[in-house]
Q: What sequence folds into this?
């Protein structure tokens, strides 16, 4: 709990200050993402600190902002989870492993550039092998498998949205 002197000082200086709006955005251009060891995207987070105020609307707003941020995080996690699932269905379980390796390397406190480059080299090799198979009869079966898998994902998505 804050001391009485500290509270009085806060009340005198900022007692009627209103809470500022927040803005969060992420823009990703899949064709402008940088080298193998980087993922370029525009991230903008304008999230002011929680502040003491005697303005009732601002106090309520701060609580609602914190709760909405939780909900936002859950939605983003659901989207990410579905996207990763789609990758592994479309390209197979090996692509999920590549994603997990790359993501782990990127999220380290100091990103592991060597691991990121190595994993991306594997992804590129995998993609080249897929394109080489395009001329083979196997491509027809792959397309049917992918279409079936995508239909299953869309049915699951539609069922979850209903």
A:
């Amino acid at each position: 709990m804050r001391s009485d002197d500290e509270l009085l000082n806060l009340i005198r200086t900022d007692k009627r200050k209103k809470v500022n709006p927040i803005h969060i955005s992420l823009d990703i251009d899949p064709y402008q993402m940088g080298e193998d060891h980087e993922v370029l995207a525009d991230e903008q987070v304008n999230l002011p600190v929680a502040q003491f105020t005697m303005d009732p609307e601002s106090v309520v707003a701060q609580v609602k902002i914190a709760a909405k941020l939780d909900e936002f995080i859950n939605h983003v996690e659901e989207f990410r989870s579905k996207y990763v699932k789609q990758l592994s269905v479309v390209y197979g379980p090996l692509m999920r492993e590549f994603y997990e390796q790359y993501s782990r390397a990127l999220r380290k406190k100091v990103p592991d550039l060597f691991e990121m480059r190595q994993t991306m080299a594997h992804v590129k090799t995998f993609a080249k092998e897929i394109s080489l198979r395009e001329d083979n009869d196997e491509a027809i079966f792959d397309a049917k498998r992918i279409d079936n898998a995508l239909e299953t994902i869309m049915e699951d998505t539609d069922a979850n949205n209903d």
Summary: Residues 4-161 form one domain. The longest helix spans residues 56-91. The chain has a mean pLDDT of 86. The CA atoms of residues 22 and 65 lie 8 Å apart.
